[in-house]
Every structure is written in structure tokens, then in C-alpha cells.
Give the backbone structure.
Amino acid sequence: KCSSCGNTSFLFNGNCLPCTPQTKCSTPSTTLPCKVYEDKADAACDICDSGWSPDSEGMCQECGEDCDACDLQTGVDSCTSCKPGLYLVEGGGRCQPCDLMEGCSPGNITCYFSKSTCSACVSGYYLSDGVCQSIFFCHILFISLSDGVSRFIFHFAFTSFPFSSLCFCVA
């Protein structure tokens, strides 16, 4: 028979039973004790999943909809980090949308304060230092007119090939 248990188990009828892991916990605590109910106990958590934060007892609580993590002492809407596509306003607590970036593939925008960067571009753009640049190239077309003289005509078109942001000429 046990008289006390460690932080990852709880005492029930003289036995040490393991604490039940929390479903929203990504890093269980080894220092905080389990939160004990009548016949079960939830394991304390140091780091919760995205959108959740541990309270003072290590129980994961849901944060406000824009928060990746929050300060539960201030309130669930007091963000300490933001979900992807949002940035933490200087002074903290609130999240704002990142600047939209032309050509950036959805879900690939990250930002620090108001400066946005992209990690992947849609077709027709290439990535250069976190910014999507438009890709285009030109063809030189030879056309013989009715006077018998050949003329050069430049034809610009978008492509998905990453040549450069300058015109790439093909004869």
C-alpha cells in the first residue's frame, strides 16, 4: 500500500495510479502534480497544442480564436503568439492578419509584426528572399510581311518555368 505518489501518478485506495494524459497536451509536466478528481486524475501539462495554453495547475484551456497560445491570467483572448497568417501586435495581446502577398501559396505566409514572408509560391511565380516574383518570358517571332521584309516581334507570356523576373528571350 502506498501513502504518497509522484507527480505523474495519483493515490487511489492505497495504490498509485497513472495520471490520464490530456488530449490537448504536447509536453506533459514532470514537475506539476496531476489534477485529482474522485477516481481519476489528469496529467499536468507544460506545453499545450496550438490554440491551447496551460493554466496554473497545468490543465490545457482553449485560447481565443486568433491565438496560438495565450496568457490565461489575463484572459483567453490575450495572445502570446498567433496562429499562422497572423502576427502579434506590438505591445502584445492582439493578433492581426499578415499583409497579403501576391503569388504566395495559401497557408505559406508568415509574418513578424507587419512584415510578411512567403515560403512557397503558386504556379507562375518563383520565390526570392521570401517574396513571390512574377515569372515571364518572351518569344521573338519572325514575321514576313507582304513587302517581303522579316520583322522581329516580341511576344510576352507567363510560364511556370523559373527563368528570372527579366525577359528570357527564345529565338
